[in-house]
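Newbie here. two chains, one complex. Structure please?
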Amino acid sequence: MSSMFSLSDVTVCYDNVEAVRNVSLSVEEGQIVTVIGPNGAGKTTLLMAAIGLLSSKGRMVFQGSEIGRMSVEDRVERRLCLVPEKRELFSDMSVADNLLLGSYSLRDRSGVQKTLDEVYDRFPRLRERQRQAAGTLSGGERQMLALGRALMAKPKLLMLDEPSLGLAPLIVREIFRTIASLRDLGVSILLVEQNARAALETADYGYVLETGEIVQSGPAKDLIHDPRLITAYLGGH
Amino acid sequence: MTSDIAAILAIDGIATGAIYALVAIGTVLIFTVTRVVFIPFGDIAAFTALTLAALDAKRFPGTGALVVVLACLATVIEVGSLARSGELRLAPRALLFYLVLPLAVVGCAWLATRMDPPLAVRLMLALMLITPISPLLDRIVFRPIADGTVLLLLTVSVALHFALVGLGLLFFGPEGVRTEPLTSLSMEFAGVLISGQTMLIVIAALVFSGLLYLFFDFTLVGKSLRATAVNRTGSRLMGIRPARAGTIAYLLGSLMAGVSGILIAPVNTVFYDSGFLIGLKAFVGAIVGGMTSYPGAAIGAVGVGILESFASFESSALKDVIVFSLLIPILIWRSLASLHSEEEIEE
């Protein structure tokens, strides 16, 4: 199986300080891949570089094309999408407008209404609140809107940065259920999470990022039983 | 002051304020989308009046030469930047937008000076000649420093205004112009005579504000502009290109400034440097609205117009002093009401 998305020796610097160093990883078609690691390991930096918001060295290949020098907008047009940690919603605009703008990069507009209905079916709460300003939503609803907005672009690879951050446990479970169900839509997912257990339970494959470097990788079902990871990230269970 | 005089001054103020409102709305539009306080907006309004006067006199307007120079410069810069980023395949589109379209408009204007087109065509041509100027200036001046601070962009904007005033003198000469009123109708309302031109100004301001509202609320492009204004990173993640949103904002803003220039030309004598005061007073109106609210900017601009009208009755020499003094309490109030606007802008 050829990789849908691969990073080879990617290095990202902030003012001469290497925040991510020689990272290589790949995501296969239809796979959920997670990158776990402690706070400050460089997980968010890696995703920011992957979408083009930060410049990087190394190779980035998405669906056979080198995308390392492409602009953010060109990557989005190729259906590589990011739901960032801060969500980056349009807070003054309605839920419906936020979702509609998610489809901005689609040239073929004929399926937009159908996708919108699918997103509303997936997140009925958003349908109830479609006229409400995004800034007035609760944390869980904001995350649903961020996910729904990304789905409006019909992504081939969806990158999620800490989707569980700051959410109540019940909502976290719902969000991870949704992420797992996206696989059925044929969306590949690169999931960056501090909640290592939930991430590994959802993912097919995992990487462990520490101080900017990949220190371990393997099938998620193996990593979840790895003694070192259990001590470091999985709460000793 | 009798109530009759007060009514006349109020109507006069509303008409002047409506002109400022058009420019103020354009200023807010460009600021929210690009973070540039576009000081030369008033110059664009004045240049439109001068362009229309030249077309009325069957002279080729100086705007034509200005557009040609700017189009050539912008094309060289755009193609150079495409070559550097290895995207020369996009060059034909760049040539179309930055060279062919502006030159086609200039060509039409040149042809018009050879014929005797009706007023509606001359108005259209004046607007078409003026609208490319701001997007071209954006490409030449602001795009290379788009990531700079608001203060840097403002400083460059002020410098650009002075450059444009100089070019205005070069292309239009020092004489002032006053065009024919667009209508000779007049009507009496509550005992006060209102000229058709005054009504036209207010109606145009209302119509264009309404159209802008519809554009922002009911079109995807309008929504993408609002999104860029609200959250630049978020909009980029949706595939909305800030540079393209900026170009659309400049085009729309120029159109608003152009319309205000056409409306003001029959009421006031317009010189090559008259734009500064128009732009500055519109800017005061926009600040009243906090630089981010369209209704706020429009209300603020009408307020400035009314204040100016009454101030000029009380003391013609001090009217500008009174209007600009208004800024001080407003800025104090704004800075007390909002403690974090600068940080928000920087984001």
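Moderator note: The two ends of chain A are 34 Å apart (CA to CA). Chain A has a mean pLDDT of 92. Thread marked as resolved.
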